[in-house]
Design goal:
Strand order of the largest sheet: 2-1-3-5-4
CATH superfamily: 5'-nuclease
Number of strands: 5
Largest sheet: 5 strands, mixed
Helix content: 40-55%
Radius of gyration: 18 Å
Strand content: 5-15%
């Protein structure tokens, strides 16, 4: 696979969770392949969620130093920052696809990084969101070609939305 693949938190957690005997080896194989091919992508949200989950929610959890070593290594995957562009993209995704906010941030980060595949167990397998196709790492064969998932170029809005802007005073925001 040569396409860029965005990896959701749950895949990284399963790769470290020895209690998940069926899912752990599959997730670990995916992560290892993405390391080899240098095609894995993540976001700062994923890194934060990963650290908290593996240190506080896994039984037994990772030591903080080990989790931090993982996070430091994953920084080389060029994590998408949570910035204005991502927040605006996530809002558009939330409204258009009726996804939860945190899922909208994940899909938006995958889009902004030009990923064609989003590995996640949390979203519907096969769901397509603006050029990003969600695949479960537990049903999507690691050797399946990603050529079937071409990413169209991300087009920025050419003009602001129509209509009069909402009153800032009514929203409670400063003028």
């Amino acid at each position: 696979m040569t396409a860029l693949v965005f990896v959701d938190t749950n895949v990284l957690v399963y790769a470290r969770d020895a209690a998940q005997r069926a899912k752990q080896p599959l997730a670990a194989d995916w992560v290892a392949r993405l390391w080899r091919e240098q095609t894995g992508r993540i976001s700062m949200q994923v890194l934060s969620e990963y650290y908290v989950t593996v240190t506080r929610k896994l039984e037994p959890g990772l030591k903080q130093a080990d989790a931090w070593d993982d996070v430091r290594a994953l920084l080389s995957w060029d994590p998408q920052p949570i910035d204005t562009t991502l927040i605006q993209r996530a809002r558009e995704i939330e409204q258009r696809h009726r996804l939860a906010w945190w899922d909208s941030l994940i899909v938006g980060a995958a889009q902004l990084q030009n990923c064609t595949v989003l590995l996640s167990e949390d979203l519907q397998d096969g769901g397509a969101y603006g050029g990003v196709t969600v695949r479960s790492p537990f049903t999507f064969a690691i050797n399946e070609p990603a050529a079937a998932y071409p990413a169209p170029p991300v087009v920025a809005r050419s003009h602001p939305p129509r209509g009069r802007p909402a009153s800032r005073r009514a929203s409670g925001l400063p003028r």
